[in-house]
Amino acid sequence: MAPSIPGLPLHPGVVTLSPEELAAGKWNRANRQRIAEFMHRDGLLVMSGIITKEPLLALREAMTTTSQAIKASKTNVSDFNHGVMTNFLQSPPMSTKELLFPEVYQNTFVHQAVETYLGNGVAMAFLTANTALANTTDRQPVHKDASFVSPAAPYTAVVNFLLSDFKPSNGSTEFWLGSHANTSPVEQAWKSSDAAVPTCNVLQELLDERRKTRPPVQVEVPFGSVLLRDPRTWHAGMPNPSDEDRIMIAIGYSAPWFPRDQRFLAPMTSKPLLTSTSIETLATFIPDEEWELVSQKWGVGEPMQLKYLPDDEKRRAEGEDKGWVTINDLKDGEKVVVSGIKAVSG
């Protein structure tokens, strides 16, 4: 379970880059400590001053045009996040060379922050964007981004580049700070007792209990800030009552010990940038024309679908007889089956 201590803050901590750190190209020791402390305590932090607004504005313009063009094609519930037709994934313009900004896709302050939390030797595991559709009224169920029996340690960190202000009036995310601490798949709902993996949804009775000591917050973060979060932290996409789609780019990084079985698709044009640092990029690079045909197909079973679960067949081929194993594995009878659940397991 994920207990909480009364009196902890309800809003995420902020770490601000100083002019001296910007000139040196690295966080100072004290700020790296703050990054580690905020992430271990809250599972979410805000980084300020690590990127200028100009590349974000250019990306917002391009990606808003794309979101308008593709939203009409989203007709099945599996095309949307967690069974709610108000929020979907889309690809950033990775085949447009002039929009491949190193400040976004290879930001040294991001890399340092991620490695402060996960350890040296992380890999870029996925690259996507999240679009909260304008004029919506439904919210997602509270969930973790862990559609498998996840490990009992920080295994992935997600960096969100906000392309606008991030506030309740345009559907900012609801976070349950600190819920990643001691979290376990026993908290998640299962579609059936024989299901191989859980849904991402957190059980309602656990939400009711945690609300008593550290209730959720719909965060408010200014444009130009960058979020760092542990995907095990409970959260929920919220309705966007504004007249504009709200978009944020998401880059996932995996811990050095986490299996590197899965690959995401990326266009060949992006390869020089995505492979320009010591951070390994877990991508399969394909011709731009092929990528553009599939780049907005993020639904279940589609080419761009996010995959978190380690490949058991590959694990066994490499000598791990039991495939993917974690101390978080559930015992017989620990699965809580919830009937009629909307969320997908992936």
Overview of the molecule:
- The chain is α/β, with parallel strands linked by helices.
- It has nine helices and 15 strands.
- The strands form four sheets. Strands 1, 2, 3, 4, 5, 9, 11 and 13 form an eight-stranded mixed β-sheet that branches. A three-stranded antiparallel β-sheet has the order 8-6-10, with no helix packed on it.
- α2 packs across α5.
- The longest helix has 18 residues.
- The model has no long low-confidence stretch (mean pLDDT 91).
Helix-strand sequence: EHHEHEHHEEEEHEEEEEHEEHHE
- Biggest sheet details: 8 strands, mixed
Shape annotation = globular
The Cα radius of gyration reads: 19 Å
Number of helices: 9
Number of beta-strand segments: 15
- Beta-strand percent range: 15-25%
User: Which structural class is indicated by helix and strand composition?
Assistant: alpha/beta
Question: What secondary-structure arrangement, pairings included, does this model have?
Answer:
Elements: E1 13-16, H1 19-24, H2 29-42, E2 44-48, H3 53-70, E3 87-90, H4 102-105, H5 108-118, E4 123-132, E5 156-162, E6 174-175, E7 189-190, H6 204-211, E8 217-218, E9 226-229, E10 235-236, E11 246-254, E12 264-267, H7 271-274, E13 280-281, E14 283-286, H8 288-294, H9 312-317, E15 336-337
Parallel strand pairs: 1-2, 4-13, 7-15, 12-14
Antiparallel strand pairs: 2-9, 3-4, 4-11, 5-9, 5-11, 6-8, 6-10
Helix pairs in contact: 2-5
Task: Name its key features.
346 residues; alpha/beta; globular
Give a brief rundown of this model:
With 346 residues, the protein is of the alpha/beta class. The chain has 9 helices and 15 strands.
